[in-house]
Queue: 2 jobs
Job 1
Amino acid sequence: MKPQDKAGSAADAPLDSIDLEILAQIRDAFAAADPMPPDLPERIRFSLALRDLEVEVARLAATDREPALASRGEEQSRTVTFDSDSLTIMIRIDSNGDGTVRVDGWLAPPQRREIEMKTESSPLSVTTDEQGRFAFAIVPRGTAQLIVRPAEDGPSGASRSVVTPALVL
Amino acid sequence: MDETGPVTVPAQRPDRGAHIASLVSQAKNGSEQALGQLVTELSPLLWQVARAAGLGTDDAEDVLQTVWLRLVSHLDGIHTSGALTAWLVTTTKRESWRVRAAGRKQLPVDEGWLSGLPDQAAGSEEQAIVDDDNRRLWRALGQLSPRCQELLRIIAFVSRPDYQAVADELGIPRGSVGPTRGRCLAKLRVLLADDGSGGGR
């Protein structure tokens, strides 16, 4: 079959200007019908601002998203689990009732690590105990990200930092 | 288009590939700003890749973050704009499947994007023509296989210099003189031509 047969629509013909116009039409249609959230690139840039060069990425594994506003105004706690190749990170987020939250976390397997909580203001830092527990008593609401770094006296194999995606507290 | 608009840079900018390659090399040297520009430029494409794979909006946001975080450790092997875009598209597809396989909130296939599209309200005459073209486009897309719908949705957001690299990755055969139309676009073109005066005005 010649390329010009069937309205010049052979599959192995090179892309022509009509194809490009159709592709542009598809792009415009999807960009309008299902646009990327406009603030997403900003959140991604936030999570990429790392001083660590070699990182292990922890993926969001589970979250129990409570209704955004509980009926009585008192917000419920939320737990979020992240998995990476070497670690599971679980955190519980509770409202302090004053525009800040408390974050309690556990690492599995349990180990000593330095935990940084990057926030929209200055970063916070704590060290886990032997059971892998850590807590940030006061964290401002907004975008935040956890970075789990090797601790001075932690396991020797833990050389890489583990980072989570940014989440909104 | 402002800088937050659709990603595809017009073909009249032949320096785009060199520009992206330069951003990649700056990002390797630790430039957060260069990496940020790549995020701005390429995330709208990756959003469509994740959504075309059937993810809900929350999962798609998570997947995009994961993909960009993973890129930081993979930049060393990437030197060209095409290689970057192909890596990002493939990794987004894989991460999307992974999330789907994990059984987190997923859309049943038949509740995907086609049924979720808003009805266009009547507007100006010009708008009505655009709406008419759009309806014809959605109708034609709806007659394609799910795989073709996904593929066209993805390549429509790929800028021309990267087209070949992504087409290779997605299994569209390469022609002797460059990118080919491929089976899916050929089919869509016939459907559009059969439905009224055609989509290639």
Job 2
Amino acid sequence: MTLYSAIFYVLGIVILTATALAVTRRQPVHAVLYLIVAFLGTAALFFLLGAPLLAAFVVVVYAGAIMVLVLFVIMLLQRSPREFGLLSEWGPATLLGVVFLAVAVAMVFKDDRSGIVLQGAVAQPRDFGRFLFDRYWLAVEIVSILFLVALVAILHLGKRREAGDDEAERRTNPVESSSGALDPAAEQRGINSHGVKEGHR
Amino acid sequence: MIVPLGHVFLLAGLVFAMGLVCLVAHRNLIMTLIGVEVMMNAAAIAFVAASLRWQLMEGQVFVLFILAVSAAEISLGLALVVSVYRRTGSIDPDRYNILKW
């Protein structure tokens, strides 16, 4: 066993342990913290498998941006639904995962060529970027359009509900105009007053 | 020189199965989104391993696009969660029964 394979198995154990701890937490905050460990292990694994640029991107995008975003939203929501560790909830899910895993393992190890030992190679960031913009520049542009679409959708979702809620709350009960969480009854009132407002226009 | 290809695929499959269990079992929309992220992470590991196996850079390019799609998905998903929380006051998907008669 060479040094590289030892590093791989250690990283694999770290990733699996952190992910297993993350998916079984009840508190989303704890799950996100364990998941950051899993993503850092993934970044190190990418570095080992010869993708240093992708390792940097995983640290920046996954462990940095996305997880902080999730933490902010958890902070905004402040209430988690009660979860029970019942067999009726976790049993079918675990069964699904085990069945999937059995099929995947059978498919991977049925092929003799899965025993081929990987040869070490490194894609230098310069070569990678040149390759990307040389041959897949159209896909990069399409991804930028995807981001634009996501941005527009997020602005739409955030802005319209906020304006509608403020109007509705001010019309129905001016006292509780700052309450963020609405029950379904208040939501129906919001829809009605919004419809009235549309009618006036 | 490093490890057999099957072991990397086994690692990716284990992580993917955990993400699947997380996606199905939890009744919290944020944990559901985290499960999707874990599954995308597993797919990225498999793609990088395949890229090293065939010594082609397309696998790494695809991982870059997986990263981009994952970022767009999680931001849009969280915006939807916040929006639906404002509507109903809950992030439990079992309680979204406004359309049910």
